[in-house]
Amino acid sequence: MTFRARIGIAALAAVPIAVLVLFFLYPVSGMVGRGLWPDGKFQPGAVLSVLARDRVHRVLWFTVWSAGAATVLSVVLGVPVAFVLHRLRFPGIGLLRSLVVLPFVLPTVVVGVAFRHLIAPSGPLGGLHLDGTAVAIVAALVFFNVSVVVRTVGAFWEGLDPRAEEAAATLGAGPFRVFTTVTLPGLLPGIVSAATVVFLFCSTAFGVVLTMGGLRYANVETEIYLLTTQELDLSGAAALSLLQLVVIVVLLAFSARTRRAPAVARATVRARRPRGRDAGLLLWTGAVVAFLLAPLASLVLASVHGSAGWSLDHYRALETTGQGNALLVPVTTALWTSLRIAVVAAALALVLGCAVAFLVSRRWRTPVGRRLSATFDGAFMLPLGVSAVTLGFGFLITLDHPPLDLRASPMLVPIAQAMVALPLVVRTVAPVLLSIDERQREAAASLGAGPLRVLLAVDLPVAWRALLAATGFAFAVSLGEFGATSFLARDDNPTLPVVIYQLISHPGEVNFAMAMAASVVLAGATAVVMLLVERLRIGSVGAF
């Protein structure tokens, strides 16, 4: 590599590194510092004193057992669906895949509102008396994370060499014996990886627990939020954030290690048509899809039905500030604010993510280069290992004084949302760039093409679908982001998820009806984006 090329790579890496340091490492270190140096002096005992509180014990226990239960249920529901959607072929399978992946990218407040209406005493499932229970929270967490299991395990299932299964069947093994002795060991790394990521997502769930848990149930995420915004206990919040950060980093490292675990030989497997013995799995998949559609269907129907019958009154009310002036701005204003912020955040995440993906997808010839590339890649996965609430809290306590006083900056929220979406962009684009044959780039360069011309002539034609998918994912994530935004958005310039939470936090039938209508609008916008992304057939949910 020439000296000029090295300078170019260093300059390309400098920008995302600077952004990572300023808008991730600095806020997170400020959060850690607030927990360990509460009064300007190093006091590790302050963290231990917070962890010794009885309420913190209850919060930690609820976080662990609810995330564990949701993880087990997600795996049990998702593994059979993964087989149907990734090993079978039948009309409508593309639509089913879209329906299964949609819940993962829905805004958390939308899911909270949908489940609250579904299980409310006056709701379709009110007779089950699940309103305000931990069972409802676990069900909502499963709703979110089934798609993670389906995508991750499905990718492993597609790559299993069918010859091993066929050989076992030829030797007289029945379907159950073949599955337990051949298929399951090959799927195990994918199942463990999926379960680890699902537990991580469930243990850091924020919007669902905040909207459905009320005053009775809280996990670490919502406790950090309450300590910061209501009790002004920043040291306590920082201590919990520090604990959460350590646990999440360990889980991410474990997940990465399971993905590197050896598996059986892999090959590209063609999907087959369903057989008679697949009837049970098809029925199971139908039941899971019904479970995923029920809250959304209930929400849509409730948004167009009121005391006077079927009407669009709830949607017309979105131009107001709600019952008792619950809001400072109309919901429609918040919607346009969310769209503008999402465009900016998606653009930032795409530019930074593409630069990172380009660098980590290069085939470095020296061990030092490969180690630096792996370190660089891991560094930009760190935002995935820190919850959005922790990141927003870090922004709140560090970017409020010179030289980085961004409290009044309109870029504060887009930057935070871009950091949340950045790992998703990298994991969508990098595998596609890595799949390009390096000889094509070398051939173009030998014909006199410069680095930019090689990028446009070789990389772009292969990666453009991934770039569009990454843009869609980043836009959808930003549109529904609630954790960091809840700390940073001003009351006079809120985003739509923040407004929805404000509406359900204020009493009044009109306010909750408006929240349902606003949730449908937000879910619809997210769904349109994700359906377009799914048509590109670029998977990313299981990439982590």
Number of domains: 2
CATH class term of the largest domain: Mainly Alpha
Strand order in the sheet with the most strands:
1-2
Unreliable parts: 261-267, 539-544
By DSSP, the count of extended strands is 4
The profile of the biggest β sheet is: 2 strands, antiparallel
Shape estimate: globular
CATH superfamily of the largest domain: MetI-like
Mean pLDDT over the full residue set = 83
Q: Please report the distance between the alpha carbons of the first and last residues.
A: 31 Å
Structural class category: mainly alpha
Give a summary of the structure in a few sentences.
This protein has 544 residues and is mainly alpha-helical. It has helices at 3-36, 44-51, 54-87, 93-105, 108-119, 134-159, 162-170, 175-203, 207-213, 220-229, 234-259, 279-303, 313-316, 331-360, 367-379, 388-398, 412-434, 438-446, 451-480, 485-488, 496-505, 509-535; strands at residues 305-306, 309-310, 400-401, 404-405.
Task: List its traits.
two-stranded antiparallel ribbon, 4 strands, MetI-like fold, 2 domains, mainly alpha, 22 helices, 544 residues
